[in-house]
Amino acid sequence: MPTAPSDLRWLAAAARLALRGRPLSRPNPAVGALVVRDGAVIGRGWTRAGGRPHAEAMALAQASTQAHGATVYVTLEPCAHQSARGPSCADLLLEARPARVVIGVQDPDPRTAGGGIARLRGAGIAVELADCPASRESLAGYLVQRRLGRPHVTLKLALSLDGGIAMASGESQWITGPAARAHVHSRRALADAIVVGGETWRTDRPGLDVRLPGLEARSPQRMVLSRSPVDGVATLPSPDAVKNLTDVQYLYLEGGGGAAAAFLAGDLVDRLEIYRAPILVGGARASLGDIGLAALADAHGRWRLIDRRQLGSDSFEAYERTREGS
Q1: Looking at the DSSP assignment, which residues form a beta bridge with residue 40?
Q2: For the whole prediction, is pTM greater than 0.70?
Q3: Of 6, 46, 279, 289, which sits with the fewest C-beta atoms within 10 Å of its C-beta?
């Protein structure tokens, strides 16, 4: 039976709440939870820094005894395993006795992997595993890490109308305007690590930090795609080395063209974020080098538009991949 639209709306609200925990919750996924009774939220939670408390624990604590008979919405299946840091979320839900638990995504962690759902149902609590795109998107880093053994990679490109990322001389500051640049900083704040190519690092010496008031502490770990050591910055010897970044769920790739092409050629990009400025450069440096396409037909069907908006005079588009990668 399809998930009710009202349940999907509550799960989407829980997914937005989960963003408060990203990326501070690592190595745990950033989960969101809501306790709803008679159409009103009586408890809300998200995974806190370092992974504890879990979202369900926070939401149930707020709801207190009112959670009995209510509906709990949670983006990821409640954990079924205990640890030295506290009881499992399945145990907390069994104690709270909600009437229903609606789950956005089943947990691929083998310690749970359906076990949380089974325990709740076994105790007579109604459980629905929804097909919730908002939950999957909010957990993209965790799910990609579990499935493919590497971080979820977002490639960001700032382009002129004619597809340039810099003038022929290399000058690139600034193609986009203040609103677009502020949006980039908000996206950096959601990443565990940020990487640029060696040429971009040597030419621009970018800060790669978050410069939004109140979010400076969320600056991601800085990395440079380089086979040689770089003073003061971690290095990634090749795009394929992202598979060694076991504690990184979200990697933000800011280019330049060579690094972007290398990641795309390696089939290692999960999301594209394109900022397009209403300017023409002419003779500009291209946004991408060779990405290994043998024929134009191979370029089609790989990306799906999921977001489009105006940021001042610039436009923003986000695309997600439409097929499994390596």
Answers
A1: 37
A2: yes
A3: 6
